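Posted in: Structural Biology > Protein-Ligand Complexes

Title: Requesting predicted complex, magnesium ion in pocket

I'd be grateful if someone could produce the 3D structure tokens for the following input. Sequence and ligand are given below.
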Amino acid sequence: MNRLVVMKFGGTSVEDAAAILRTAQIVAGRVAKGLQPVVVVSAMAKVTDLLLSAAATAAKGDRASALAITERLRIRHRDTATQLTAAGSRDAALGNDGANPAVVATHAWMDAEFDGLDEVLRGLAVVGELTPRISDMIVSYGERLSSRMITEAFARCGLNAVHVDARQCIVTDAQYGKAIPQDAAIERRLKEKVAPHLAEGRVPVMGGFIGSTEQGVTTTLGRGGSDFTAALVGGGIDAGAIEIWTDVNGIMTADPRVCPDALRVKIISFEEAAELAYFGAKVLHPATILPAVKKNIPVFVLNSKNAENSGTRITAMAPHCSSPFKSIAAKKRLTIMDIVASRMLLSHGYLREIFEVFDKHRCPVDMVSTSEVSVSLSVDSNEKLPAIAADLSKLADVKYEGRKALICMVGENIRGQNGIAARVFQTVRHVNLRMISQGASEINMSFMVEEDDADEAVRSLHAEFFSDPDPAIFDVEAVRLGIGSRE
Ligand code: ADP
Ligand code: ASP
Ligand code: MG
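-- Reply #1 --
Done. Output follows.
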């Protein structure tokens, strides 16, 4: 039996000392069962956002406000470390932390890290230009700090934990902000840096989200990228399972923040989970599934605040489900671009030229629909759009409009079922639909709406399609008992 398990804990699972101690217990539980965990952790909740805002503030020349943000972060990390030490030591528990050598040592390395960070921010305030490379360097501090602090906490809780700098393992290209991992190099590095610890029975702990180029320059994998790190590590060490520990009971039939009656999906296919992640279900990073699919490693989504719950299992094959859909995702902050070019009518190479523009600006396209003279595309609303529109206007007339959302309904059972589309569109008949797509993937039906209509559309669709859920697939017991998604 393969005993290797990658356990990834997201920001809320390590948000404070109590959460970190819960995490330690969960890991200890796996060790007690004879499993060998490799732990991947995110930055403490909200730290990534705060680091990004410190960077943006410094780049505007407001040095004092940027340093005020890092000062608050420094205090938060120091306080958490003090509390974590208190949990394992009588001296600190007595409030004597100044004299406690463990706390002093932890505060010393944290101060050195924060001093380094402040140095970068001071330089940035002078230069006034935030490059993606500097942004990655600044934002990497979140995971660098959390992973080291959590390793120390684990050791104090009796785990044989060892810190591994993720930047020495996750080799990427140099596309700062959304770097592409280099699988073969990662596998080699994991053999060098992680495998020996596992052979000695240690629990390696590393930060998610961060990596570095072959030359050793810090990079990041994009927002939410710690899930991706977990999957890369799982794939790289041939783990028997990957566990994504978060703040909800698993993948739900809709985002429980939008739809309070969302149900836990007990089992879902890789393909369905990947569509959901790509189309906005924040619970998983879109690229997470790929390294797991390649090696057929099951992925579990679990709740660190409710560790007994069996979560969601993501597997190669979806079992039969009597409901047409498994889940509804919504992706907001999208823009629709309408490209109209009557003079290009029937000329071949037209679509290629259009897509070359998006390629040049490295701007992914979510949805496409074409007519004889026009193409509509949906893209993430981003600062590159005016430049993209300017390039496209050399080929065609271009209009674009933001504040759109994509609603994506996912399920293996859409294949070959009659009347499903009619039911979907009847349910959202009061909503102005902008683009519709079904067919690119047989398991996804998507359409664009105004962003302000998105939540209501998700709730109406959820009420229509999940009123009689299949108990083999969905956790109907939780509904009967009135249990929410986070308990
Ligand atoms: P973490 O910090 O653990 O990575 P995230 O905030 O990235 O956690 O993802 C968890 C959140 O994803 C949940 O709190 C929930 O609001 C949101 N979410 C969106 N869609 C879904 C879904 N279909 N199922 C579960 N959670 C979802
Ligand atoms: N800390 C990073 C973020 O907030 C990565 C992650 O948590 O997955 O985006
Ligand atoms: Mg996440």
